[in-house]
Amino acid sequence: xxxxxxxxxxxxxxxxxxxxxxxxxxxxxxxxxxxxxxxxxxxxxxxxxxxxxxxxxxxxxxxxxxxxxxxxxxxxxxxxxxxxxxxxxxxxxxxxxxxxxxxxxxxxxxxxxxxxxxxxxxxxxxxxxxxxxxxxxxxxxxxxxxxxxxxxxxxxxxxxxxxxxxxxxxxxxxxxxxxxxxxxxxxxxxxxxxxxxxxxxxxxxxxxxxxxxxxxxxxxxxxxxxxxxxxxxxxxxxxxxxxxxxxxxxxxxxx
Amino acid sequence: xxxxxxxxxxxxxxxxxxxxxxxxxxxxxxxxxxxxxxxxxxxxxxxxxxxxxxxxxxxxxxxxxxxxxxxxxxxxxxxxxxxxxxxxxxxxxxxxxxxxxxxxxxxxxxxxxxxxxxxxxxxxxxxxxxxxxxxxxxxxxxxxxxxxxxxxxxxxxxxxxxxxxxxxxxxxxxxxxxxxxxxxxxxxxxxxxxxxxxxxxxxxxxxxxxxxxxxxxxxxxxxxxxxxxxxxxxxxxxxxxxxxxxxxxxxxxxxxxxxxxxxxxxxxxxx
Lengths: 255, 271
Hints:
The complex is a heterodimer.
Chain A: E1 2-11, E2 14-24, E3 29-33, H1 40-47, E4 55-60, E5 63-64, H2 69-74, E6 76-79, H3 91-101, H4 106-115, H5 131-142, E7 149-153, H6 161-176, E8 180-184, H7 188-194, E9 197-202, E10 205-210, H8 212-218, H9 226-229, H10 232-254
Parallel strand pairs in A: 3-8, 3-9, 6-7, 7-8
Antiparallel strand pairs in A: 1-2, 1-4, 4-5, 9-10
Helix pairs in contact in A: 3-4, 5-6
Chain B: H1 3-17, H2 20-41, H3 52-80, H4 85-88, H5 94-128, H6 133-161, H7 164-192, H8 195-207, H9 210-221, H10 229-239, H11 243-268
Helix pairs in contact in B: 1-5, 2-3, 2-5, 3-5, 3-6, 3-7, 3-9, 5-6, 5-11, 6-7, 6-9, 6-11, 7-8, 8-10, 9-10, 9-11
């Protein structure tokens, strides 16, 4: 279970995230979408314990991500948008570390990488891998061990068609294992294909939240088979444009 | 394997695979050998004189090179802690990441220093005899204490400053202050305070500077504290026999406190 309870984050004067509340249950996949700077990564990074919230609480598997950080992270797999580790790191060293920390034997960690076709790349550094291979390694390590919650920040960024499909498959596998998955993505068709619910964010605020059907209704677009009758791109554009206009009105009123 | 040991192995592998350690090992070994030969030859003959004479020369090398290397390496390693987003999401206390980085660099650079001292020691032993060999080993210990303190200080600087370039700049300034600046303050203290009061002031100043502490400790090993400068002489007068232990304890504190501060700072910072 992933929980965000009125979580906010300020960087100096800038409000990066305004009171976001969200629950992702076991076996559920929720997507965060929105333009750059919408607060998607900020929300994920707070849950991963990489940054601290200015207000509100986040929890993973019932453990507060600030007060019981280690217990929360024990159940968490996190794939950051950036590499988040020196590119000179050797794949085998990383697998040994993740295995030890997550209570998985090195041999099992290595086997998991081998199953992804990376068995012969254990001696390579991350910098020597292709973008797709690197992302596969990071995803395999993020999901290693008894993970009950998975946070993915732009998991298919810079991946080719096959690589993106592998990421989609990893998310489906995680869902099947009962893992709660929260991911941020600009790939709206991935979002439509994978997410049970979608949160649309603009300027640090969640402006819409629901299933694709519910979002289509909120956008005033035809219901029914929303994926074909009201493509997610269109729903997204309408909601983001409307959200921006509403936020502008609020700011003007405040001024 | 425990997660702490796994983290140390991971950091050790990262340090070992970098080129910094190898370059330092080769450079320090060459410099040690050159200093040892120069020290032996300075007497006009390569006569039997043991380790004492050349050790004092080697101490000067340690006092200039070790803190600079420790501060710079620590500062870069500390700043790079902020690039570890993938690792910090693991169930590992962040302070442990800082300590593992410090330990890995200490082990590798400490081994490099031992290689340098070992090379110089073989030459000294062969040409000048084994007298004072035990004190020479103790000098390696002093270099280790200074390395530990300067690495910890550098890590604290790097974690606090975050940017690698600013961390390096701050480390160089810190090195200048510790290697030169504190001595200038000591001279000023001597000039200003009456001799009776200056002794305690200088002793405290000595403890407040890990480089000066190591200098006094190293020279004391070879009964050469008469040339330890004003602070060393004052320490001998004020603290007497416990001076060496006070200095070693001071260096240990110079390691523990900055390391604790670096861990605390990193644990509380947003990446």
